[in-house]
Amino acid sequence: MKAVQYRTVGGHPEVVTVPDPEPGPGQVLLKVTAAGACHSDIAVMSWPADRLPFPLPLTLGHEGVGTIAALGAGVTGFTEGESVAVYGPWGCGSCAKCAEGKENYCLRARELGIAPPGLGAPGAMAEYLLVDDPRHLVPLGDLDPVRAVPLTDAGLTPYHAIKSALPKLVPGSTAVVIGAGGLGHVAVQLLRAMTAARVIALDISEEKLELARAVGAHEAVRSDGSAAGKVRELTGGLGAQAVFDFVGAPPTTALAGQLVAVEGEISVVGLGGGTLAVGFGALPYDVRVSSPYWGSRSELIEVLDLARAGAIDVHVETYGIDEAPLAYERLHAGRIDGRAVVLP
Ligand code: NAD
Ligand code: ZN
Ligand code: ZN
């Protein structure tokens, strides 16, 4: 089968032919219908060899949906041809976090060598994907797989971050989304669907600001030296009760600290290497800072239900599998409108 692989440190993604996988006992084989390209893939492909936590080559793609092609021995509960989404942050399934459905925070994954597809295990950017356990699958029903595939990360990750900030996002509050790309443009929609907060989107690109407005941001502001002042102005000097940073680079984490309100919350989701100092006086009183990772199994079910209810609609650009390297090039250059989705 064809697969999109990251093969050597510092190299570019390549389309190669690899053997078709076969499901062993307890596993499920999917015929991939769609796979999303995430900026985290770009981050991983920029890491030096000593930071890379898995061997190469790696088949990319940690956002995947497909139809059931074959069930390994002993697998029940799914039928061939059924359309499913893959829950990506695989865990051990039995530690205290996994028992809560929070496999993203599995306590034993590293020790047991368990890694998500596309981030250690062979990923979804291929014609077939081997899924280790049917508990990682959520039925899609009649959801359009192409628009649904980004929900497995670009939807789930902001959903998880927003859910923990919900108590702060009361009527009259303000939420700021920094970076209106794949995750950010879904975050804007989630905030509108889940809260009564005013939503302000920040980005460095005029096209992304336009997309943010189109998907429901009340205000869209250029992310530059004057952004903190503008947000203060728009909030009567108070600042934002919740800031979601989908860039996470030094200029944006600094900005988050400047525009957050007293008792506000900052979620640093982006992997841009920015950090925040939290000593007394470094931030307004009682600000909480978190660095959430992906989301839980039940949260994925909730996000898919929101899409089914029509509350969120991901903007996608589609690419054939041979064009996947181009999709990554465009993502790297900041030129994707919404999410890039590869159709193998
Ligand atoms: P993306 O490239 O689609 O979007 C990033 C957006 O940020 C773009 O619109 C870009 O114009 C904008 N941007 C860049 N610099 C900016 C600045 N200084 N101020 C404001 N906006 C700026 O990327 P994505 O796939 O949405 O991923 C976003 C980030 O989240 C990445 O760092 C990715 O690695 C990370 N991520 C984290 C998790 C997690 O679990 N924590 C999960 C998925 C992705
Ligand atoms: Zn991702
Ligand atoms: Zn576990």
From TrEMBL:
It catalyses: a primary alcohol + NAD(+) = an aldehyde + NADH + H(+); a secondary alcohol + NAD(+) = a ketone + NADH + H(+). Its cofactor is Zn(2+). The keyword Phosphoprotein does not apply. InterPro entries: ADH-like_C, ADH-like_N, ADH_Zn_CS, ER, GroES-like_sf, NAD(P)-bd_dom_sf. The keyword Zinc applies. Keywords: Metal-binding, Oxidoreductase, Zinc. It comes from the Bacteria. Residues 10-342 form the Enoyl reductase (ER) domain. PROSITE patterns: ADH_ZINC. Its EC number is 1.1.1.1. GO terms for molecular function: alcohol dehydrogenase (NAD+) activity; zinc ion binding. Belongs to the zinc-containing alcohol dehydrogenase family. This is alcohol dehydrogenase. The lineage of its organism: Bacteria, Bacillati, Actinomycetota, Actinomycetes, Kitasatosporales.
